[in-house]
Amino acid sequence: MALAFVGGGLIVASGFSVHGFLLSILSLVSGGIPTVLPGAIAIPLSITVSVLSALVALGGVTVLLGGIALYRRHVFVGRFLIALGGGASFLGFLIALAYAVVTEGVTSVDAHSQYWIGVAVAVLARWLAGKA
Question: Which of 81, 97, 101, 119 has minimal Cβ neighbours within 10 Å of its Cβ?
């Protein structure tokens, strides 16, 4: 729980965010839902995808909400929120980091080290919450 607060705080304080693969997939799904599914199913599903997209976009705030859920002993919800806000797993973190290095260079990672440390701490918090 404490690691989620630290990680989320670092992400928020950095003012930087990387919304890669997950947000792109959610945006793609959101745009295609009304064309594929009937309205009775498409509307609630579109709302759900929009809420998930907002949680991913909030990043550090979502990690902080995950820390609050862990504090209240809602482990599944806490892990889920941390995964949305800070990266789904260590592999997701590594992919995002590699993508940032390839597209923006190593100096970008160094310049936004507070963000990357926050994400790493959030991933660690999620992993440790799963062990509890």
Answer: 101
Question: For residue range 112-121, what is the model confidence (pLDDT) as tens digits?
Answer: 888 888 888 8
**CB count in 10 Å sphere of residue 22:** 17
126: its two tokens: 């999620």
Angle, CA 42 vertex, CA 36 and CA 46 arms, to 5°: 110
Give the integer Cα–Cα distance in Å for 28 and 49.
10
The torsion angle over the Cα atoms of residues 66, 51, 33 and 99, rounded to 10 degrees, is -50
C-beta separation of 100 from 114 below 8 A: no
Average pLDDT, the chain: 82
